[in-house]
Each structure stands twice: as C-alpha cells, then as structure tokens.
# Entry
Amino acid sequence: QVQLVESGGGLVQAGGSLRLSCAASGSIFSINAMGWYRQAPGNQRERVAIITSGSSTNYADSVKGRFTISRDNAKNTVYLQMNSLKPEDTAVYYCNIRGIVYYPTPGLEFDSWGQGTQVTVSS
# Structure
C-alpha cells in the first residue's frame, strides 16, 4: 500500500555532513508523524528525530544541535540533515512514516519503514 524509498547514506569523515531523504508513495490520504531511527551493530534501534504533521520536532539528546529533520508534504518526503558527524553516528538509518490510506480501505492507518541506508563516519 505504502512504499518508502530512502537515499543519501554513505561514507564521510568526522565533522562532515550528509543529507538523508525518504519518499513515500502509494495510496496515501494523509501523513501524520515522520521520523528517523538508527541501529548500530549490537545495539537496539533508537529514535533519532521525529516531526509531526504540525512540524513540531523532537530530537535524541545525542544529535541535538547537529541534526535537523524536515518534511515536504507536497512530495511526501522527510529529510534528515546531519552536520558535524561523529564516528558514533555510524549506523543503518531507517525512516518511518505513519498516516492514513484511501485504498483499499479508506481511513486505514499505515506505519511503514524504509529499507535502511548505511551511514559510516570515519575518524
């Protein structure tokens, strides 16, 4: 019903920047919260940042002041601008989008995840 495609990961030196994108497609009626999560080897998945339908944002303490989440409602896309990257930011980053579809069941909620994109920060 709803597919997410992520892009923008890669290898960067400490102090560098990357911008992640996640575009949703399908029978989307509306989108509520959009967020980014990450999972490093041996660790649980953790929330990095979220943005609500009203564009309120919330960040993990570890990324405050360095990462910025934003959304383009016309494109059903969420972004994560990552600056001043540190080696401890190395992880697979996943986007998550929640909303409502209009087909095949109008009003049905969805909770979709992207395929993940690797971010590696070298020291």
